[in-house]
Specification:
Blueprint lengths: L2 E3 L6 E3 L1 E4 L19 H13 L4 E3 L9 H13 L6 E6 L14 H15 L4 E6 L8 H13 L3 E7 L3 H14 L6 E5 L11 H8 L2 E5 L22 H4 L1 H7 L2 H16 L4 H10 L7 E3 L4 H8 L8 H10 L8 H8 L3
Amino acid sequence: MQYRTLGASGARVSEICLGAMTFGEADEKSFMHKIGASEEEAHHMMSHALEAGVNFWDTANVYGQDGLSERVIGSWFKKSGRRHDVVLATKCRFGMGPGPNDRGATRLHIKRAVDESLKRLGTDCIDLFQIHMQDIKTPEEEVVRALDELTQAGKIHYSGASNYAAYRLVEHLWAADRARLNRYVTLQAQYNLLERGLELEHVPACKRWGLGLLPWSPLAGGFLTGKYQRDKSMPGGTRYEKMKDRFESRSTDRNWAIVDTVVAVAKELNATPTQVSLAWLLRKPAVTSVIIGARSVVQLEDSLKAVDLVLPDAAMERLDKVSAPQLFYPYDFMKNIDGGW
């Protein structure tokens, strides 16, 4: 396992981040119902990941239900006594109750959410606390000050953004710089061979400001694993079996051409499509750590092998070409004039 700097911080994290969205068996109220791992299996994955050198774990208060994922991680910390071997990340923003202040990125909600996450996780500090999505109703200056106050209080070490528009991300960075307060060090966002929209604005912003990019859904919900094939029935027990509308939206000629290329490259390199998809991301600018989700140790082991897969330049070029995002104004205009944007 190799380690990279966590964005503009000095912390070192593994190239693979263990995503905990699947940790715990959620009931029918949760979008993770019947697609999560039992607490016992989640504990096995955490132990296996740490032994493999994965020291960076990511969760959120809404994963599962009522903080289920955080509670599962907290129980493993208590049982193993290895909290300080892990760089722990969690998030807040979405609804955790029926009240109007049980959501959002206000100072009120952020501070309450941190205290509640600390209790569930059984720890006294969160290493990376992220705002799960921008809150257009709350000034970014308020977000900056709330996170800085939590840093000064010793409840969080670093803060990061997730699911932000590029303009809003830069607005946060400007606000923090103007006030001379701590600012975001990372951006967590969807990034994979099917979804490369980040490359237009977010990746340049991350490079300019020194933010570490943390891709989520690197396998596009399993679409890039090779288990799905064009014009063939969907395998049972998969996430897309429950989310057929999302599968249909991804079932396009462009996306199937990407899958075909990934599968072909994997065969040539004696690797799996999962490993190829992850290795492609690890070579992309600004990427610090790729967040992988798993429901079993077997799935986890497959993903971990991506760090040892060296994609030849020719393979990268094939993957880049087949997955190139469709440009629109002003990006197509700028590319036609200057070759880039």
